Amino acid sequence: MKIASRRFLLRFGTREKKPSILNLEGYLFRAVKYKVATQLRDLKFTRAQDEVLQQIPVSSKVDTNLEYQDFERFLNARIEQLAPRCRKVFMLSRFEHYSNGEIADQLNISIRTVEKHISDAIKELRAGLAHPSL
Fold it and tell me: In sequence order, which residues have a C-beta less than 8 Å from that of residue 113 and are 6 or more positions away?
């Protein structure tokens, strides 16, 4: 709360003309977020704090990497099981970062159909995560 009130005073405490803010809540949220990030980045640890941090057990990067690779293989296999058009729409949306409108134009389908394919794909992938043996 202290950061938000400081930011508010910095923004509105001076008399000089500044551009208007259309979404005050969003502005303050973002300002606080960046201020906290800056403070965390600039945070310096004492030697004792550093030693305590070093003693905290951290899972092996190798294990984490192997788990990620297994998950990625599982997810790719599930994506391959999607219907061809559904898979194409999902891949364009999630991996090639096309907008729904761009996908609709490229595949000559409606935006609503694109949305339905993406929704169906996500449902199928979630179902696969809930029941990995299927």
Answer: 104
How many residues does this entry show for the chain?
Answer: 134
3-state secondary structure at position 24: helix
3-state secondary structure of 17: coil
Structure tokens at 56: 């905290």
* In contact, 4 and 28? CB cutoff 8 Å: yes
What six digits make up the tokens of 17? Answer: 């003309």
pLDDT tens digits, 41-68? 777 777 787 787 777 776 666 667 777 8
Question: Quick one: how far is CA 120 from the chain centroid?
Answer: 21
Burial of 71-85, coded b for 16+ CB within 10 Å and e otherwise, reads eeeeeeebbeebeee
Instruction: Confirm whether pTM is higher than 0.70.
Output: no
